[in-house]
Design goal:
The chain is of the alpha/beta class and about 325 residues long. Helix content is about 40%, strand content about 20%. It starts with a helix and ends in a 13-residue tail after the last strand. The structure holds xanthosine-5'-monophosphate. Xanthosine-5'-monophosphate (XMP) binds next to loops. The site of xanthosine-5'-monophosphate has 14 residues, from loops. GO terms for molecular function: ATP binding; GMP synthase activity.
Length: about 325
């Protein structure tokens, strides 16, 4: 158990000693690990760090803008944002198989990242937000989500760019990374956000991914998350929460929560007319390790409010369902 300011001082000195005057590239995803790594490395070497943020068009509502505001505006970190939505959507057109979609998103990600990084001809280091559990995991089998991380480094970067790896979080567990992030000045809500998969909304739109679907899903998902954050937690029988450390709201009381887009139309009524529109499913789970999970017993009033808001505010959706499947046999994501 270490003291945070001392830890930061030590980590900063170590990074400075390691990279000297060299330039460093980091792939910023908006996730906790790469964000904390960026903040720490920036603290150590300032403008010698350039972050590359690939926006694949499968991020959550306003997420790209939030990442840019936080790093570029507030922290003064050099960030290159690559808007690659069209490229990703183009390659995903007509593809319905989940693993195929993951492969394409991973491949294009590496492509875009390498192309952008290749322009930073003076870079000598590639920084990654690898944390201790990743180190252990990649020594073992590696789960389906790891492709993006592990392949960066061996992607198509130009021959002359022999980048060395800089992994300043390698010895830290997730809770330590979070504490470090807060100590470095990252917002609490960002650092304690639920996990979000690398392929993003690509695996939360069942079957073929389309921009139209992603736009509908983003709006529904944002409403769900907003209501979870705004609804105070109250104990409901069947909850698997830590009784000594009671959550403040339903966002904190769940381990992961999101909306899923179902490309199925059902009939509804609006005013005098009938509608024929898409469905979203809400998923909220509680888990310690994400290997098994319980569906969260959200209060009916909360579910009702979210459903009303989605149907009233998102034109194109007329039905909301709640997923009450545990893992196993269901997985947390629908794909
Ligand atoms: P499942 O759906 O397998 O998810 O129960 C377990 C955890 O892993 C996340 N997940 C992924 N993360 N790339 C990632 O980076 C992926 O392809 C991927 N698939 C699932 C999921 O969000 C949950 O936290």
């Amino acid at each position: 158990d270490w003291n945070m300011p001392d830890y930061i001082t030590e980590a900063v000195e170590k990074i400075r000693a390691q990279v000297g005057k060299d330039e460093v590239i980091l792939g910023l995803s908006g996730g906790v690990d790469s964000s904390v790594a960026a903040a720490l490395i920036h603290r150590a070497i300032g403008d010698q760090l350039t972050c590359v943020f690939v926006d694949h068009g499968l991020l959550r509502l306003n997420e790209g803008q939030m990442v840019m505001d936080m790093f570029s505006k507030n922290l003064g970190v050099k960030v290159i944002r690559v808007d690659a939505e069209d490229q990703f959507m183009g390659h995903l057109a007509g593809v319905t198989d989940p693993e195929q979609k993951r492969k394409i998103i991973g491949r294009e990600f590496v492509e875009v990242f390498d192309k952008e990084s290749g322009k930073l001809v003076n870079a000598k280091w590639l920084a990654q937000g690898t944390i201790y559990p990743d180190v252990i995991e990649s020594a073992g089998k590696g789960k389906k989500g790891q492709t993006i991380k592990s392949h960066h480094n061996v992607g198509g970067l130009p021959e002359h760019m022999k980048l060395s790896l800089l992994e300043p979080l390698r010895e830290l567990f997730k809770d330590e990374v979070r504490k470090l992030g807060v100590a470095l000045g990252l917002p609490h809500d960002m650092v304690y956000r639920h996990p979000f998969p690398g392929p993003g909304l690509g695996v939360r739109i069942l079957g073929e991914v389309k921009k139209e679907y992603a736009d509908l899903l983003r709006q529904a998902d944002a409403i769900f998350i907003e209501e979870l954050r705004n609804t105070p937690y109250e104990f409901v029988a069947g909850q698997a929460v830590d009784a000594d450390n009671l959550p403040k709201n339903w966002y904190e009381a769940t381990s992961q929560a999101f909306a899923v887009f179902l490309p199925v139309k059902s009939v509804g009524v609006m005013g005098d007319g009938r509608t024929y529109e898409y469905v979203v499913a809400l998923r909220a789970v509680q888990t310690q390790d994400f290997m098994t999970a319980h569906w969260a017993h959200l209060p009916h009033a909360l579910l009702g409010k979210v459903s009303n808001r989605i149907i009233n505010e998102v034109r194109g959706l007329n039905r909301v369902v709640y997923d009450i499947s545990g893992k196993p046999p269901a997985t947390i994501e629908w794909e």
